[in-house]
Specification:
single chain, nine-stranded mixed β-sheet, about 15% strand, globular
Length: about 280
């Protein structure tokens, strides 16, 4: 992959499932693409991959074929109708949830071999804090933690932030309240959780915007579309566009080797060890 274009690498995570992590990844990718940016979405939710379904895409091959040595990363990558380059994950293969060093290194080398140049690489990781999830998040430049306003989601988000911040020494952690009643409620949720992080971790997390609850998001999923395609005038579509715009306004993280190279190097360094 060429070093001429600097790629912003954003990991989308959640402490628990069911909070809209993949929906956020997909709609953010589409929103950035609609703004004219070149976007790649890496479905790293190994074992429960849904990004291609949400995009209405049909991939003949997926990450399972790549890890089995049957296809290259370039060969499994597809271009969706939304203009997003998708590296599809593999559903129903729980053995993929824990990558070995060799498998992680294989992904790393293959990212380097891709001929595509992209402005944004969105990495949709699995819910929870498995070693592979932490490896992928450590390899990203920014980490968005999706959270709902319910006690278990808040507790799990805090636990994820604690591990990323205190145990792994990572920064550039952003809280993204999802399915909230209003932007005001989203800000209050962020403030509440951030106050806890400051008090007990001595660290503050960042905030860009919130995504308001919108029945059209689920309706779009049922039609294998992003909400920006099905209902571009709705509140959620507006919020995803606001999130994408906020991403473009963030200061560049100027690592010596650049975005994708940084992702590859960090993934190599943080790949989980085989037991």
């Amino acid at each position: 992959m060429s070093d001429q274009r600097r790629t912003e690498v954003i990991g989308i995570a959640s402490g628990k499932g069911g909070v809209g992590k993949t929906t956020t990844s997909v709609n953010l990718a589409v929103a950035l693409s609609q703004m004219g940016h070149s976007v790649m979405l890496f479905d790293a939710d190994l074992g429960l991959a849904n990004a291609q379904i949400a995009l209405g895409a049909r991939a003949e091959y997926n990450l399972g074929h790549f890890l089995a040595g049957q296809k290259t990363l370039q060969e499994i990558m597809i271009s969706t109708r939304q203009g997003v380059k998708l590296i599809p994950g593999a559903s129903g293969m729980q053995e993929l949830a824990g990558l070995s060093d060799l498998q992680a290194a294989s992904i790393v080398q293959s990212f380097g071999a891709l001929t595509e140049e992209v402005d944004y690489l969105i990495v949709d990781v699995a819910a929870g804090i498995s070693p592979s999830v932490l490896s992928f998040l450590a390899a990203c430049q920014r980490r968005f933690i999706v959270v709902k306003d319910d006690p278990s989601s808040i507790a799990d988000a805090y636990g994820t932030i604690k591990i990323l911040s205190k145990e792994m020494g990572l920064d550039e952690i952003y809280l993204l309240p999802n399915m909230v009643g209003s932007q005001s409620e989203g800000w209050k949720l962020y403030k509440k959780l951030n106050d806890v992080c400051v008090r007990f971790l001595g660290e503050s997390v960042h905030y860009l915007t919130s995504i308001e609850e919108d029945e059209m998001v689920l309706r779009a999923l049922k039609k294998y579309q992003s909400v920006l395609e099905l209902a571009p005038g709705t509140g959620a579509a507006r919020d995803y566009r606001r999130l994408a715009e906020a991403c473009t306004q963030l200061r560049p993280i100027d690592h010596p080797s650049g975005g994708l190279q940084f992702f590859m190097e960090r993934l190599m360094q943080n790949s989980p060890n085989e037991s």
